Amino acid sequence: MSAPQAPKVLNRAPGERHGQRVQLGADEPLRLDCGMELGPFTMAYQTYGTLNADKSNAILVCHALSGDQYLTGTHPVTGKPGWWHLMVGPGLPLDTDRYFVIGANVLGGCMGTTGPKETNPATGKPYGMSFPVITIRDMVGAQKLLLDHLGIDQLFCVTGGSMGAMQALQWAASYPERVFAAAPIAGAARHTAQNIAFHEVGRQAIMADPDWCDGDYQSQGKHPRRGFAVARMAGHITYLSGPALHRKFGRTLQNRPGVTYGFDADFQVESYLRYQGSAFVERFDANSYLYITRAMDYFDLVEEYGGVLARAFEGTETRFCVISFTSDWLFPTSENRAIVHALNAVAANVSFVEIESDKGHDAFLLDEPEFRATLAGFLNGAAEHRGIKRP
Amino acid sequence: MSAPQAPKVLNRAPGERHGQRVQLGADEPLRLDCGMELGPFTMAYQTYGTLNADKSNAILVCHALSGDQYLTGTHPVTGKPGWWHLMVGPGLPLDTDRYFVIGANVLGGCMGTTGPKETNPATGKPYGMSFPVITIRDMVGAQKLLLDHLGIDQLFCVTGGSMGAMQALQWAASYPERVFAAAPIAGAARHTAQNIAFHEVGRQAIMADPDWCDGDYQSQGKHPRRGFAVARMAGHITYLSGPALHRKFGRTLQNRPGVTYGFDADFQVESYLRYQGSAFVERFDANSYLYITRAMDYFDLVEEYGGVLARAFEGTETRFCVISFTSDWLFPTSENRAIVHALNAVAANVSFVEIESDKGHDAFLLDEPEFRATLAGFLNGAAEHRGIKRP
């Protein structure tokens, strides 16, 4: 006989307010780039730390494709630490003793914010593929409504890696007066052809799975697990660098003395990828994956500003810190440098740091001391200018 | 009424002998690395040019994953030129007025050589997944039997790109006395973790397709088209470089004034990839794809020679020319340089050229003047030493 199991208690991060949801766009719907209107809709978010009296210490952390609002503490679904637990917390670069840190699930996501998985109030059924195709600008528009709701006129900082960097750039371009500082990390001003190509492979893998059911799998009690896992596997390779895969796995075999002359996961790297694929599909929604990758593909700040990226930032008073990683081949330094060039062209206050790392695109999620020091230093300096008290 | 259609006449390359097949391993079966024996088996091959009297002018061209024996002339299935038509022909680097050029479909292939698609004589049914898992060394062992059959004691040269380079290296290591010269192009002495990872994604995409039927799709009149197309799409991205995709497609839309806010192929790069995927599955066999990618994954000349690559080439008298391309991130220069280092360590006759190109791994298939000049120069020099008459 085993002892009765204790109820699962989430390990909260200090100052964390858990499971917050708000209905937005009730008075006036959100006008989407596709021309449709959305409202009311739900935004799920988490906050860490305390908003100061003049509401000047808020940092919005925008998440990447597979991220969510759980920045630190224990994730309620995976039971693992939030995706930025190395950066958010007391004494960490996003110091929750000093800053009020907000994580919000993006529009189109699947962790509580309205997205294809949620019920369409008009039909009483899940949106599925009837959900409107959204853009990075739509995500940011929804976040702006959240800040209005929280009474925050100006963010101290908006930051994020990858798709989070796209949102940070969109914030700085669309609402410059509401952004004191911005730190786009491992991002780009527009999604490259190669990145669109990888996303298209992922989408085709999902849509090729008969259990996708033309997007209607929820109603039919299915989930396109196999195709979705393939999509995640393909994506996952691109988040790492070749050298990192070599260092981590090389050609090491998975618990066997020699190859089996078969199609099992002989190599550790195969086993690892299969695990990544199958774990991801249990926590993420396949249609959300379609919608969010599409939003990234559509992101093109250059085109939005008439072909001249600098125009996106004309007259900006925001302080920028652009960060890239040497081994990131998905959002390489060259793409980040293009952002810096545009900011320089309008004499913006910008610093640019390329971090030496062999960990690829995912470096922004990992323990990279130089990266942590860079972001901490930027935030400290900006906080001094903003007059945010030290803890 | 339309005029009666003329019978399709293939555009033969000069000196081409078309549609040759030979039964090999009848007397003594081929002993495979997996421990099984195979024989008799069929080898399908093409020859171009004329074998000279002392049989000293034969060049074996080893094909890559998706290639075959049709090096030039019109491909009988696709109707397009053979994959190396820029290199093989009168006056071209592999000058068919001077050399006798052999292209052979690899063991496990699907263009006539015995592979999973062919009928297992023991059962009267297609091999499918009962086909033994083969290795690059098995492919080369089968090619050796072909050369025995042709009465060619020593190849003037063995060459090929990608998996073709693996075969060329294996030839030089396993049968040094039968290789006067070797030109491995865009290759590696062992498949990297990243490459294994991409192959695994492709295999999982195929196996996830219900029409794969556990490999038995032929008997059931099916083909895992959708999953296989996804595999090809993922592979195809890796054959190109990011800059090449940017130059070729960028973010250009496919015959439309703006994005459609949907999941159609809005971008040219998506449309291109979808086409690549769907065209490939019509001419290639999905199980062959599984087996050939597995053979590449298993390739590890370093391990075969006790962890020291140089031992693979000890005492070699073969002349080597190793070629890489700057933008090839799948088989990067570093992997090719490792081969050169090993050859240098045994004082082999080796030249190494890194070709400046932004076309990625596929550069060896494309019009790259410096590459053509390099290979032509190497072959000319070696032919002089070998005493092969000029045309």
Descriptive keywords:
8-stranded mixed β-sheet; Rna Polymerase Sigma Factor, Chain: A; 2 domains; alpha/beta; 391 residues; 17% strand; globular; Rossmann fold
Written account of the structure:
- The structure is a homodimer of 391-residue chains.
- Chain A is of the alpha/beta class and 391 residues long.
- Chain A folds into two domains: 17-192 and 300-386, Rossmann fold; 195-295, Rna Polymerase Sigma Factor, Chain: A.
- In chain A, 33% of the residues lie in helices and 17% in strands.
- Chain A is built from ten helices and 14 strands.
- Chain A has helices spanning 136-150, 163-174, 193-208, 225-239, 242-248, 268-283, 286-298, 301-304, 333-345, 369-386; strands spanning 17-24, 30-31, 37-38, 41-48, 58-61, 88-89, 94-95, 100-104, 119-120, 125-126, 155-161, 179-185, 319-325, 349-355.
- In chain A, β9 and β10 (125-126) form a beta hairpin.
- In chain A, α1 crosses α2, α3 (193-208) runs antiparallel to α7 (286-298) and α4 crosses α6.
- Chain A is globular and about 65 Å long.
- In chain A, 58% of the residues are buried.
- The model of chain A is unreliable at 1-7 (pLDDT under 50).
- Chains A and B meet through α3, α4, α5, α6 and α7 of A and α3, α4, α5, α6 and α7 of B.
